[in-house]
Each structure stands twice: as C-alpha cells, then as structure tokens.
C-alpha cells in the first residue's frame, strides 16, 4: 500500500505515489454523535487543489448538518430514514402529503424487512429478492417503483454523505409487475358523464365538475377563493381569469403550496363557464350569509351548503360517485385532467400552451423557459368550449 505523506501548509491533505506520478488524498478526523473519533478518508485526486476543495465541502457539510454523524457501521435503515425525514421536513422539501406517503410505504414495506438492518449489511441480492417478492405478492409496478424510490432516497443520501461507500442497490430490476391501467376515457363516455352531471347536480356542483373538466387538479379547485376569480371583457367577449395559487389536501385543509412552481398559473374561461362561475361566487356568499358565516376575498369558493364550511378536499370524489351511479360511467377527478390533455393534443393545440394551462413543469427543458400568454389561453379555451361543454341537445 502506497505511503501517504502529509503536505506542508495544507492540513489534512496528503500525497502518495502512483505508477505514473503521484495523487492526493484527504484524511480528516471528526467526532460522531456518540462522541467517538472517526476519520473521513478519500483518495484519487489529481492535484492538491481538488483535494482541498473536497475537504472544505465535507467540513461545510458537517457544519450545516448535511453529514450524518451516526456511527456508519451501526446505522440502520430506519435510523437513517429518520435523519433524512427530519431534514426534509425542516427545510420544507417534503410537503405533509409527501411525508404521509413516504411514511406509509416505509412502514408497510421497507421497515419490516430492512428497518433494523445496518445500511452497510444490505446486499444487492437481498434487495432484489425483496423486490421480486413484492412482484409475486401482486403489487402494481407503480407501487413497487414508489417503494423502491424511498429506499433509493435513503441509500443515495447515505452514499452522498459518506455513511456508506457506495449505493449497491442502484438500477435494481423491477420485472413482471402488473402494469397500471391506462387512464383512458372515451369521448362518448365523457359526454354521457357530463350530460348526467348537468341533469343530476345543482348548478353549483356542476360548476365544480366543469372546472375539473378543464384539467385543474382536485386540490387546486378546493383551494379556489373569491379573489381567485376576476371577470373582464376581451374584445366584447366576457371572460374570467382563474388564478391557481393554493392547494388544499386532507393533510393541509387550511391551504398550502401548489405542486411545483409551474402550477402557479392563470387560466381564462369564456362562454357558459363565465356565467357558471358568476353564479357559484354569489351562491357561495349566499350560503355563508344563511349560515351566519362572514366572508371576504380570501373565503373559499366551494363550501358545504348545510353549514358553510369549506368542502373537504376529497369531497369532489363523492360528487363524482353520485354521477357515476346515475350514468354507469366510472370517472374520477384526475381522469378528467388526462382527458383534457388528450383532447387538446388531438385537436392539435400548441403543446406549450397545454403545458402552461395544466401547470406542468415541462415538456422539454426549452419549453419550461417559456411563459403563458392571455391570447394563447383564450384561443385554447374558446376552441375547447365546443368539445367539452356541448349543450343539452348536442349529439
């Protein structure tokens, strides 16, 4: 083994001979959470400057709490998951819904098998056997992929922070799992569902269905407030600007951030939708008045008719079930989002306009740098009105 020689004036940096000259390495001593002496060692740098940059980064990571100072040899999967979870919560990286999802998959699938195992003891063969067992148990490919993503978060962070030398579980194979059912809705089924919704629901709840048919996410509709709607005229045509800037989920009923930066957007509607929104805004205010509840511009648009409280974020599913029982067509809120995207693409609308309308983060990296325009959005909705909202006597 090559002898490491400390470099003068460069603490913790060493040089050592190799076949074609010399290379540089790091040896840095620090103390773990159990107050035990540990050494960070890394080699293979082509010059001392590169080694020094890596050393300073490691020291800064320790100071900022990015390096796990648990004893590497004894750190279990569960212990390190808790380290990652705490940091992700502290810096706001994981939303409550994300935390709940990851906690559930970890507790149900990963913890029983790997929770008490040391990170360094998990072999690729063991983990592949676990994945294959999940396949045999009948879990869908999407479910297994999500389970695997939680494990990869743990192992990648452990490698990045030098808790383990290498993530041996990368690029694990998920073969033979059930493919998810395609989110598909035939035009005739869509028309029957919408026709039934118009006939069976009140005007207020039909408006909610229409907004979802425009491709908005359920949590975005639940988060609409009075100030989210702005009515105006464009070239003599009445229109409404809808601002999406808040989400309500079962974990954050009071309101929270949207899914990503691209989700913050303004959509524009014309035609019957303007009248439906005007009606729903006034109807919501009437409900609050009748229930003795005060309202203002921050009040939520959709409230329960009996007591004026904002609807539960999952309440739209109950409305959909009511329509489904009447017409026999199974539709759920997110399926209408897929249908909007499918029909918009099939009608040859600009992919970039559709991307901005739906609040997707990108089609390609270039498209992600573009910005939506009112003209493009109004053109899109004017042409989509005939496809999505046919009159009662339409065939």
UniProtKB/TrEMBL annotation:
UniProt record similarity statement: Belongs to the 'phage' integrase family.
Signal sequence segment: none
UniProt GO molecular function: DNA binding
Protein name, UniProt field: Integrase
Organism for this UniProt entry: Lentilactobacillus parakefiri
GO biological process, one term: DNA integration
Alphabetical keyword list: DNA integration, DNA recombination, DNA-binding
Domain of life according to the entry: Bacteria
Tyr recombinase domain residues: 180-382
